[in-house]
Amino acid sequence: MEKISRFLLVFIAILTLAIILPKLYWMAFEKPVRKPFILYSCINDDFMIHRISEKTWEDTKGNQFTREEYEKKLPLMFEKQLITSGSWPDSIIGMALDMRTISKAKSFFRLKASEIDAPFPELYPLFESQSGRTKIDLPDDFFRITWRIDFIEAATNKVLEEKSQLFSAALYQNGFSFPAKKISGLATPRKSIDEGYLIIDSKDQLFHLKMIKGFPYVKEIDVPDGLKFRHISCVDFKNKDFYAYLFSDKNEIYILTQDDYKLIKWPVDGFDASNCDLKIFGDLFNYTVIIEAEDHIKAIALSPDYQVVNTYTENWKLKEDQTEGKIFASLFPAQLSMTSDNSKFIRFYFTPSKGLNWIFLNLLLMAFHFIWLYRRKVKFKNHVPDLGIVAVSGIFGFIAIHFFQNKFFG
Amino acid sequence: MWKSVVYKEWLKIRWFLIGYTLLGILGIGYLFLTVKHGFAFSGGKNIWNSVLFMGHQFFSPLKYVPLVGGLTIAIAQYFPETVNKRIKLTFHLPMGENKILLMMHTFGAVSLLLSFLIFFGLFAVFSLIFFPVQMVTDSVISIFPWFLAGFSAYFLVALIVLEPAWKFRLFYSLVGGFFLTIYFTSAVTSAYGSANTGLFLVTAFLSIALLFSAHRFRKGEM
Amino acid sequence: MNNVIECNNLTHYYGRKLVYENLNFHVSEGSILGLLGKNGTGKTTTINILNGFLQPRNGECLIFGENTQHLSPQTKARIGFLIEGHIQYSFMNIRQIEKFYSGFYPNWKPAPFWELMSKLNVTPTQKISTMSCGQRSQVALGLILAQDPDLLILDDFSMGLDPGYRRLFIDYLREYAKAENKTIFTTSHIIQDMERLIDDMLILDFNGVLAQTSVNEFMGSFKRFDFVLENDKADLKKASFVVNLDKVKNKIELYTYSSESIVKKYLDDNNITVSNFAQVKMGLEDAFIGLTGKY
């Protein structure tokens, strides 16, 4: 029993050290990766790269620009700055443009991997879409979709039976299969207009649910066979071209057009929702999709009809491949962490070190331990499991077995 | 014999346990008083909205309550045993040394569990007055690791207090202190959902940790 | 007679420092044995090994035939143990502590406990921590008596007690042990106390046993002779019968197991002239110091 308790303590110590030591190591030695800021210039038909820490502005061919030159190449991004400094051009690629047109076409979207792999609420407010008022009010009740849709009044925490039945029936009649797998929408009153929720039911069918003058609006959306969505981000862009960006389980990016409910797949590859962050800049002439992975950045410029017009990729060394990472991999066999950059869930994230360089330190520590045992003239036989622990877990195990010593066993 | 064991442990911890439980109940009462106040002044829908979408964790004042309980009960129970190495008296009783230790430990852990169950029950009952079951479930997932931390603290303090050598007490405290942080990683509500089973297991692993330091004591480590 | 305690070839070190090597002794049933020795000779080590709180580097101790490292509950029930300083659960009062211990021992006899308690000026609800050292010693003793063990191990029972309580403790204990044929293994700093209590003694010195014998036998054979040397350069240390010699200028205190005639013959044979030759009567404490030296 005492022996088991010791092994369990050694295990706990290894677990703790495998979290703490690598964390401290990276706190001390990690160098920040300075990702370039990339935009697409409709004037140059090239990507413009701003390196923030170096304070340089360049294109993909290496031509250097001043900040002012850079901004002039991106008039749709820096229109306010250009007007303020009096350098607003008369026309852009042959078109005279007014502010309203530019501003209406502008959109910005951002999604992090950790926003997809995250816990989601199970209750949402269903706003009135046609209240006739300019300001959207937070409703008094929130809905959940279990075996039906329930509306629960917050002040009393009671189900509103009539409303629940009305909406449940509407969903049911439109072929909704309860419960919901995923509910996506802009659950905030701070938006220009309410477009309700896009809901995936238990059979992976996609529905649009709104409340119009107190009554349900339900629309089933045609989804090609086999297409399943991993995540849906509803948007509230001024041009009202589409309801949402949708991300399939095969890492494809779709948009859902407004009113006619067409799913359009963007010709974008290289995106992995489990570990990439995504930025999409939209303007009058282009959509620029920026995919930020751990070791590279990829920029894709799309035409207004969503065709690829240009791409650019820049790679850098993973932190594992830098000197600090190599030293790390020869010190620690693995890293354990309770958190991840790519998720909001707490888990035991286990990352084995790249390569097998840590074996040398493990062998060295085994030798140390062997000498330590030899000098104490102990029975070697009783310490074989400890040496095994050091062999596998290296410095973590070495510290663990010396904190929780095998002194009176065997 | 177990009656005598329970009797002694009860004498040691009773006031601490009762005091802690009462304070905890008052704390939970106060917590839901603030929730009720929020409902009255900000409106239920705004409270719900901030809990659901703005990361408001109305239960966060409970964060260290179970930890304090684990530390309190463990110190109340094991500190008197180490003053003047009084634990020798326990080992001398006509029972197996591990058996009697585990009896004492079980009693302490069960006392703590009862106290926690009261808190948990009150929390659930009060929460269900104000929030639907889905929101209560998410909150419970978030507070669960804090209660596990209470048990871990209890088990670790027993290990540390019974350890005869100061140097190793320091080592155990270091490991134990860092270990406890894994229950308290700040995170969005219900983020611990996928870690709770693992945490439950490692907490269970610690439950017999005191046998290790007690064994070292009995073998004459100084 | 049966041996209640039997220690064979005990060897122990603290780190690299040797406490003793191959220590052997035994305690037979019904005897009261005192373990004597100066500080650092391993008294506490021995007590700890006997109680299973220390694993010796080598060798073993048996109590009632069981290795003290793994005593069965049945055997532990037969051993009464008084911790140095009369340590007890001081957060209890005497009623609680009696209730607590009675649950463990099927042969629990509350009468002697309450008899002792009635002599103390304490209330049944008074916490032990608020009692004087002497009162605490009586509580600890009372509990052991109520346990009615066959063997009593008392670690430094006189520590912190005033003379009255010491006397009370000893007299009560001896009377009890002799009446009930109990075996006692004890240590004490105060050797005068031991004299009233013990039958046999085991004297430890650095690295081993100096003597294991009955007190009467020891006191009968161990002698002290005082005399004054005419020539203070005379060397007596070579004499084989000298156990210990204390020399201040030309005044000599000589300790020996040999008779007066042998000492005198040696002095004559070696032409050492002395005056004021006399045998000095010793108590156990004098004899102990004579045997082990002052340092």
Give your account of this protein's structure.
The complex is a heterotrimer of chains A (about 400), B (about 220) and C (about 300). Chain A has about 400 residues and is α+β, with helices and mostly antiparallel strands. Chain A has helices at about 1-30, 65-75, 80-85, 100-105, 115, 160-175, 325-330, 360-375, 385-405, and strands at about 35-40, 45-50, 55-60, 65, 105-110, 125, 140-145, 150-155, 160, 180-185, 195-200, 205-210, 215-220, 230-235, 240-250, 255, 265, 275-280, 285-290, 295-300, 310-315, 335, 350. In chain A, strands 5-18-19-20-21 form a 5-stranded antiparallel sheet. A 4-stranded antiparallel sheet of chain A has the order 1-2-3-4. In chain A, a hairpin with a 4-residue loop joins strand 15 (about 240-250) and strand 16 (about 255). In chain A, helix 1 crosses helix 9 and helix 8 (about 360-375) crosses helix 9 (about 385-405). Chain A is flat and about 85 Å long. Chain B has helices spanning about 1-40, 45-55, 65-80, 85-90, 95-130, 135-160, 165-180, 195-205, 210-220. In chain B, helix 6 (about 135-160) packs parallel to helix 8 (about 195-205). The two termini of chain B are about 30 Å apart. The model of chain B has no long low-confidence stretch (mean pLDDT about 95). Chain C is of the alpha/beta class and about 300 residues long. Chain C has 2 domains: about 5-215, P-loop containing nucleotide triphosphate hydrolases (Rossmann fold, 3-Layer(aba) Sandwich); about 220-290, Alpha-Beta Plaits (2-Layer Sandwich). In chain C, the strands form 3 sheets. Chain C has a 6-stranded mixed sheet with strand order 6-7-8-3-9-10. A 4-stranded antiparallel sheet of chain C has the order 2-1-4-5, covered by helices on one side. A 4-stranded antiparallel sheet of chain C has the order 12-13-11-14. Chain C is elongated. The mean pLDDT of chain C is about 85.
